[in-house]
Specification:
Layout: E1 14-15, E2 24-28, E3 52-53, E4 56-57, E5 62-63, E6 73-91, E7 102-108, H1 112-115, H2 131-138, E8 146-153, E9 163-167, E10 173-182, E11 186-187, E12 189-196, E13 207-208, E14 217-221, E15 245-246, E16 271-289, E17 300-306, E18 321-328, E19 334-338, E20 344-352, E21 356-357, E22 359-366
Antiparallel strand pairs: 1-12, 2-6, 3-4, 5-11, 6-9, 6-10, 6-12, 7-8, 7-10, 13-22, 14-16, 15-21, 16-19, 16-20, 16-22, 17-18, 17-20
């Protein structure tokens, strides 16, 4: 019997440290065995047994040298946008004898003047930060930033122990985090889950209401077998199929497919995902991108909206109305649709019968003071 991994609820939220979300490394004390940027890669960590570099064993993560001077290693990461952090994942995959024994997390909201103190990041394996860069960063006093995760033990990177989840209780919003490792070692991946807290744009400015950077979050879905629907609200173009929402093939597909009068297929079932918008608003234009989905794009998509003054749940009745009627999709392409929605707070994206999409964007205007 295969044991099901328990994933905490916060890990269903948007993620703000990965490269595809817009996260970045701005400083690291040491990049000797493997540069810090690896830790933010979207791909799952891999291990290649016989791969070595001139500096030692190649590892898919951030790994510092064995420290032989006073202190400990740390790095500063810029998050994709200002956000409340609800939880983290520190993944030590394949770091079995070289993982960082302990870590802690500090956080801050930096002003433009403080950001100007950050040195230009020069990513080089086999290197450590220069004394000049270290002195510049010390002006930020990052060692005094708010501690949101105290010193916490990590587990080795075996399959059964690699996933180190940590809930965060602070309701403050942050733009940067400092990851401390004690005293040195490696981490394969770092994920930062939470909710974006952007400033409200002017009501006459056209914005992507569905973007995670606007504060939109995925609340529920029917199927995420190959990729989570939160991926489709990321701001950047999808990198691969893995960076989109993809479902399993539905088992209730007809044996022989037939088309309806509108050209969409007659199917028995469909898959859906519900999102709460960061701001209530009206949608004027929709873009559905099936980039990388060439043999597994959905036949059709529809978009519905609702204005809810309470939390959505799958069990609670909710009136949805059509914003985009079922519309045919095609492979590896952006599809643009015009619409004119009422004011909404939530959207439901439905694909039929199954498959994957890379991104969805809903351009419109916010409506302040709705609730």
């Amino acid at each position: 019997m295969i044991e099901k991994k328990i994933v905490p609820a916060f890990a269903e939220l948007s993620e703000f440290a990965s490269l595809s979300a817009g996260g970045s490394v701005v400083f690291a004390t040491d990049d000797f065995f493997a540069p810090c940027e690896n830790m933010l890669n979207d791909s799952e960590p891999i291990f290649i047994a016989d791969k070595y570099t001139e500096f030692g064993k190649w590892m898919d993560g951030w790994e510092t040298r064995r420290k032989r001077i006073p202190g400990h290693d740390w790095c500063i990461l810029k998050l994709a946008t200002k956000c409340v952090i609800r939880g983290l994942l520190v993944d030590t995959a394949f770091f079995t004898g070289n993982y960082a024994p302990k870590y802690s997390i500090q956080a801050a909201r930096l002003t433009p003047e403080e950001e100007a103190l950050l040195p230009r990041r020069d990513t080089q394996m086999g290197s450590a930060c220069s004394e000049c860069d270290l002195e510049r960063v010390k002006q930020l006093r990052s060692d005094k930033w708010e501690e949101i995760v105290p010193i916490t033990a990590l587990r080795p990177g075996f399959e059964e122990s690699r996933m180190n989840y940590q809930k965060v209780l602070s309701d403050e919003s942050w733009t940067y985090i400092r990851l401390n490792i004690y005293p040195d070692g490696g981490i394969a991946r770092l994920r930062v889950y939470g909710e974006a807290k952007p400033e409200a744009p002017p009501h006459d400015q056209l914005v992507d209401l569905a973007s995670m950077l606007s504060g939109t979050t995925c609340l529920g879905y029917s199927n995420a077998h190959y990729g989570h629907p939160r991926n489709i609200i990321k701001p950047n173009k999808g990198e691969t199929m893995a960076d989109g929402w993809e479902t399993a093939r539905r088992l209730d597909r007809p044996e022989v497919l037939e088309a309806k009068d509108d050209g969409t297929l007659k199917v028995l079932g469909e898959e859906w995902a519900v999102f709460k918008l960061g701001f209530c608003g009206t949608i004027k234009e929709i873009c559905v991108d099936t980039a990388h989905f060439k043999g597994n794009f959905p036949d059709s998509i529809k978009l519905e909206g609702a204005l809810l003054d309470e939390d959505w749940s799958e069990e609670k009745p909710c009136h949805w109305y059509n914003i985009l009627n079922p519309s045919k999709l095609s492979a590896n392409k952006e599809h643009w649709f015009s619409c004119n929605s009422d004011v909404i707070s939530h959207i439901r994206v439905t694909i039929a019968p199954d498959g994957g999409i890379s991104r969805i964007k809903t351009f419109g205007h916010i409506e302040p003071n709705i609730f």
